[in-house]
Each structure stands twice: as structure tokens, then as C-alpha cells.
Amino acid sequence: MTLFLIACTGPQLDDSDPGVVDDTSVDDSGDDPVDADGDGFLDDIDCNDDDDNVYPGAPGLCDGQQNDCEVDWVGDAGLATWMDEPPVDMSAELAAGGTFTMGDGTLRLCEGTWLLEIHVSGDLTIEGAEADAVLSGEGSWTPLQIVEQGASLTVSELTVEGGLASLLVPDGSELGGGALYCHGASVTLDEVVFADNISAGMGGAAFAQDCEIQISGGRVQQNEAVDGGGMFLVGGSLEMVDAWFESNIATETGGALVAYDGVTGVLDDSHFSLNTAEIGGGVALFEDNVLDFVNAYFASNAADYGAAVAMGSGEVVTFDGGKVKKNEATEAGGAVYSGGGNTLTATGTEISENSAITGGALYMDADTVTLYDVVMDENKADKGGAAYLEGTEATLEASLVRTNIAVEGGAFYVKKLVSLEIVSTDFSANDPDDLQYSGGDSYSFGLAAETSCDNSGCD
């Protein structure tokens, strides 16, 4: 079913009704009833003569108020309104469910579960009722589909659940986007919840290619996919503030999020917890992405490689503040895993209580690493309790490295090291030592350490 919006006139005036007048001009003498809002009903029977959407017999609208002046009004549950001039009641039409194409305008959904497949063909805004409004794919379709490039979708205060990816990604290789599908458009999400959506391919909750994505608040939780349990982004940009990605599952890469092929973005005050995948339990990056995590929190994510973040090649990742704690990799990189040729910078970040077989917190291979004012504490591994560095150029300054544990290299295990510059950094209680080379030489640095290391050893 396709939705066509047709301009509607206001209430028709009926001379036979003594409470309704043909002339809606206001009599300001103060003696006679008037029709101040021009809705055709005098103020002696109009329960709100300042709002032309409120009058006796008016259709119910999803606007948080009683519209028909009846005394038994209990709320707006089950109402849907196209916010035109005048607003159009669409409750009965949308309650029947189906497929609707919507262009420029605003749809307001009140409390209830709406079984809709919405095709976005213009600049559409969907407003929910504080997440009591639920848009459901009923386990059969993608509820939000942006089918026209250059379109835009703004969604607020809505829960989108039960979606099943029903569209192929642009290259036709597999399905993408359990709840939201975007190609070449812009999406703004404000306090939106994506829950229990599934994709047999990419993006359990959302797939987006060459889209501008802005997220403020809300949650992405308990979604599943092969890649990108929460979201899968190809190109485009991501700006995110105070969003939560929790308990999402990918059977292969990116439990919460996959960024692929040049995604740029800032993820501010956002949380990633209890997400799982084989590679990148929280976030997986592949092919030249640039992401800045500002005061981000990664906790209790799990993967074989890179329990919090896994990087492919050509990635530029910055941590500014935040915490990366209690993430667990069964193989390498309890916090961060790098496949080589990446740049990692962390400033003022706590990286603690992570674990892996190799590189309890960091596994870096042929990368550039800069750590400033960082705390690396209580990380565990067989090799490199805090970090495993191979073929890497690293700088560690004004930081604290303590109580990390490994069989070899309590804090750092290095192999084919390019360089490691240690400046004004405190090492303490790392077991069995602060740094060990793959050849067997080991070092303990103590407090306020100042030293340079290369492949032949440390000063």
C-alpha cells in the first residue's frame, strides 16, 4: 500500500448547528461568544478556543491533548497523525499495517506497535512518543528504507524492533539493514532504540552506504548479523553523542559496529558493552577509516581478536579520554588489535583489566602508536600483559603502567621493534618485568622512566 498525502480542508460549517457559525470573525465586544481560533466553533462550546485542532467532534490527533472536547479522553495511544495544515488523522490507515511511501513532512506516532514498512522518498521526520511508540518489522521486513538518494530521515523518541533485513546492499552481495537501510542519504536519530533486529548479512540494526549519520542518545541493543551486529557503515560519516551499543552479536566482524572504506566520525560519550564477534567485539574497522572516540567507554566486549576495537589497515583511531576495561580476546588484543599499517593515539585514557593470549590490552603489528597520560593497569596475557609490539614505532609519555601480568613481558613484549620512546612514565609491579624482547632480554624501568628502545635493546 502506498501513502499519498492529499490536502484537506478544515471542519465544514453547518448552519443547522446552533454552535457553529459561518462567519468566524472575532467579536471582541466581550458580550457575545466568539471563535478566536477560527475552527468554526464558538468559545462557549469549544473547550480550547486557542487551538483550531480542538473542537467538539474533532478527530483525535497524536498531539498530547484532548481534541474532541469529550470528558472521557484518556490519552493518545493508538493515534497516528500526519502533521500537515491542518493535521491529518492516519490512525486507522496505519493501524492496518502495510507499506507506505512518504516524502516531505512529519509523521507522529503515539503509543502502540505499528507494523509498517516505510519507504522514504523525501525529507521525512518521524516522531514517536518517548519510545512507547514501536515500529516493528514483525520478523519479516526492514521497517525504515531510504529508497531515494539525497533524501533525509529524522527519527526521534521511537523504538524500532523485530526487523529482518529484506534489501540487498548496493553491490548485490548480501542483505543489509535489519531495521534501517540507507544509501546516499542523511539520517538523524534522537533517542531512538533499535532492538532485536536481524540481518543475514550486514548490519543487524542498520546498514548505511555513503550516508551522513547523526545519533544523539538512544540504544542499539540485542541485534544480530554476520558483520556489524549493531550497524554496518560503508563510507560516509558518523557523528554520535551519548549512544549505547549493548549486547549485539556478529558471527564474524564488528559486534556493535563495522566501519568500512573511508568512514569518518566522532563518537562522543558513547558506550560499547557486552558486544561479541570473532573480530572486533565492539568495533571493527577495515580500509582507511578515521574515527575519534571521545570519552568513550568500552566494557566487557568479547572477540577472538580485538575485543574492544579491531583495525584492518590504513585506519586512524584516536582515543581522547574514556575507559577501555574488562574486555576479553581469546587470541590477541584484549582491548585493541591491529592488522598492520595503522595509527593509534590515546590521550588521558584508562586501559585496564583486559585480557588475551597475546597483548592483554594492545596487539600492534607494524603500526604507529602514541600513548600520552594513559593508565595501563591490571591487563593480562601470556605475552605482553599490557601490550605486544611487533615492527611498531611507539611513544609512551607521562603515563602509568602497573600491575600488568604475563608469562613473558609483564608490561610489554616486543619483536622486531622499530622504536619505543618512553618519557616520564611510571612502571611498577608488572610481573615478571616491564619489557621483554622476543630474543629473551628483559628490562625493568621503575618510576619516571626515560629510555629509548629499538630492535637491539633499550638504553
Q: What does it look like?
A:
- This protein is an all-beta fold and 459 residues long.
- The chain has three domains: 1-87, no CATH class; 97-280, no CATH class; 295-459.
- The protein is built from one helix and 50 strands.
- The strands form five sheets. It has a 29-stranded mixed sheet that branches. A 15-stranded mixed sheet has the order 3-6-9-12-15-19-23-26-30-34-37-41-45-47-48, with no helix packed on it.
- β49 and β50 (457-458) form a beta hairpin.
- It starts with 79 loop residues before the first strand and ends with a strand.
Total beta-strand segments: 50
What is the number of domains?
A: 3
The fraction of residues in strands falls at 35-45%
Structural class: mainly beta
Described by strand count, sense and barrel closure, the largest sheet is: 29 strands, mixed
Q: What is the helix content?
A: under 10%
Principal-axes shape call: elongated
- Give the integer mean of the pLDDT values: 90
**How much is the radius of gyration in Å?**
29 Å
Number of helices: 1
First-to-last CA distance: 74 Å
Low-confidence stretches: 1-27
Structural descriptors:
3 domains; mainly beta; 1 helix; 15-stranded mixed beta sheet; 459 residues
Topology:
Blueprint: E1 80-82, E2 88-89, H1 91-95, E3 98-102, E4 105-109, E5 112-114, E6 116-120, E7 123-127, E8 133-136, E9 144-146, E10 152-156, E11 159-161, E12 180-183, E13 186-190, E14 193-195, E15 206-209, E16 212-216, E17 219-221, E18 224-227, E19 231-234, E20 237-241, E21 244-246, E22 249-253, E23 257-260, E24 264-268, E25 271-273, E26 283-286, E27 290-294, E28 297-299, E29 302-305, E30 309-311, E31 316-320, E32 323-325, E33 328-332, E34 336-338, E35 343-347, E36 350-352, E37 362-365, E38 368-372, E39 375-377, E40 380-383, E41 387-390, E42 393-397, E43 400-402, E44 405-408, E45 412-415, E46 419-428, E47 435-437, E48 442-443, E49 449-454, E50 457-458
Parallel strand pairs: 3-6, 4-7, 5-8, 6-9, 7-10, 8-11, 9-12, 10-13, 11-14, 12-15, 13-16, 14-17, 15-19, 16-20, 17-21, 18-22, 19-23, 20-24, 21-25, 23-26, 24-27, 25-28, 26-30, 27-31, 28-32, 29-33, 30-34, 31-35, 32-36, 34-37, 35-38, 36-39, 37-41, 38-42, 39-43, 40-44, 41-45, 42-46, 43-46, 45-47
Antiparallel strand pairs: 1-2, 1-4, 46-49, 47-48, 49-50
